[in-house]
Design goal:
heterodimer; A: mainly alpha; about 75% helix; about 0% strand; B: alpha+beta; 7-stranded antiparallel beta sheet; 6-stranded mixed beta sheet; 17 helices; elongated
Amino acid sequence: MQKERLMNLFETFDPAVKNIILGVLDIEQEHISMERPRVKEHIDEIVTAAAKKEVEKLEAEERP
Amino acid sequence: MKLERITIENFRQYCGKQRVDFAKDEQKRVTVIHGINGAGKTSFFLSINWCLYGTSVENIKIIDNVGELMSKEAVSRAAIGETVRTSVDLSFLHNGERYQIKRMLQGVKLIDGTVKVEENDSFSMMRTRADGQAERINNPIGTMNSILPANVREYFLFDGEKIDNFAKPEAAKQVKQAIYLVLKLEILERSRRHLEAVAVEYRKELKNKSGQQLRDLLEEEEKARTEIQKSKDRIYAVHQEIDSAEQKIADIDKRLREMENTNILQQQRDRIERELKQRRTELEEIVNTVQGLATSGYFVVAEGAIKKAILLLEEKRARGEIPSDFRQQFIKDLINKMVCVCGRPFDDGSEEHRTLLAKVSHGLPDALQDEVLNTCAVLQAFEQRTEKHRADVDSAMRRRAELVDIIRALDAELDDLSRQLKGSPLEEISKLERNRENFKADVREYNFEVVILHTRIDELNKKIVELKKEVDRARREEKREVLLSTKLDLAQRAADAIGEMYQSFADEMREKIQDKTKEIFKKLVWKESHFQDVKLGPDFNLEVIDRYGYSARPELSAGERQVLSLSFIMAMSRISDEEAPLVMDTPFGRLSSHHRNAIAEHLPMLASQLILFVTDEELRDEARQNMESRIGAEYRLEFSSKTSCTEIVEVK
């Protein structure tokens, strides 16, 4: 499937970046029939969730 | 996506309910629907499109200029006021799950024979998962976009008459759009663009915030803390200086006490200093008492108002308004019974009646009367307290003044003693006293410095409390800043990652489609030796190269253009690996038998499911034979000239 091919395309990237891309691809797929889709909020949610995880991970690493 | 079954009800010339089961087996994957011109092939084709997408999705027209969707025969058969319903049910399989969709349009037949159709059709979607659990889908449009988007559908559900569109010289834009949509390059490009846009917003937001603020505040707090520590160190050092000076004063005093010439004066000084200490302690206590009286005597401020209130209440008492002679309730009971206090009845409007009514209207309600009496007592207590308070303050102030005078007198006595000692003809005594005075001055200065230092420490502590609040605020801000900066980093990296992979992926897809188109085209076209190559360049022009190395597209016949277009569509379907049916309305209309035979032979193997709407002429003889083994279901559309309706008949 083309979707799997796209997922494999980002296999070598940082998992956080890869997950964002896959989440955004799903959102874009759902809105593909729209010329001007309103996806900014959805994308922000995906990026924020990933960023929160990253910050938590960093904080846990810094803790003695 | 694999279509299973369709049920059409009152859709255009399909009157009543009619059902078709599509072939979907691996071996027999072709459904053929025969119909002569006007029998209803296009209507059937439209019913699938309408069921999946309605008349339009966003600004994509699905069904346009085809007249009424509702069956005219169904309308004519309906009684006035009766509801006429047009619906299409479609079930299909996708990713191991069964989907059931239904689109319905309703209307009521009016007296003039027309139908008042509801403004919007209704669309519902159910999904049955592999475990048998069924659920209604709340976002059917989004789900359809994930299965087969409306703007991708035209490459799978297509009108055979428009099939050569991709092979026209001006079709590069359409070819590019088709590749972008079917191979999800459009999704990839949109994802990159939108991630880039959110990254720009994050960057702007981040610029408006500054981590410098927290650093500055922490630095300021650190400075304040250092200054406090320095002040405390200084206080400690100053106290040591004070102790040292006081020790020296004590030594001098001892020496003066021992010396014969100064013994009496020093003893006198000792006594005065003891008394001075005592008086100063007493003065301190008095000052504290005055401060206490000042802060607790708030009611003194209200003295004027209290006096006025008491006067008003006294006047009311003098007029007999409070307390009343009788309780209000008692008077009301008498009026209700129309009986005087003495037990004699009276008449309505009589003098007794009027008197009692006047007492009710002038008197206060019982509860309020109680409140007023309580207030009187409280106010009088306040008045007494005010007087006592004033007396206490006056007494304390008088004592304070007395003590100040006593202390002044004692200080003057000490000064006089010191002058006597300093003026002593004996050098040692004079020197001792001068030194003593210097040490006393040192102690005073040191004590003054200690006061200054304590004041500064208090100020700094207050500042630290404020700074801490600001630091907390800035920390919260900083945390948001850290998150924002991480968001920016991730969004930008995701956009860059797509950008990095996009072009090579797009080129790879274009080349794959080019190769597959060439492979299919060579199978389908009968002049395969004349056409050497098929090219799909970066400009997305679909080009056929002849054996001389020239572009052959301008010379292609209408049939050859159709074959090229079909090859391109099949190539996209194969490369995308999308499990989508290929539904073609009259695909062989303009093809000669050579092409028809070749397509009939190869097409079933190039699509996971094939549904063909054909005329009798389109699929016969060798073409029919080539496809025969793949046909799993076959129907005939029979148009009745009596009813102008089409009946779908299964061909056994």
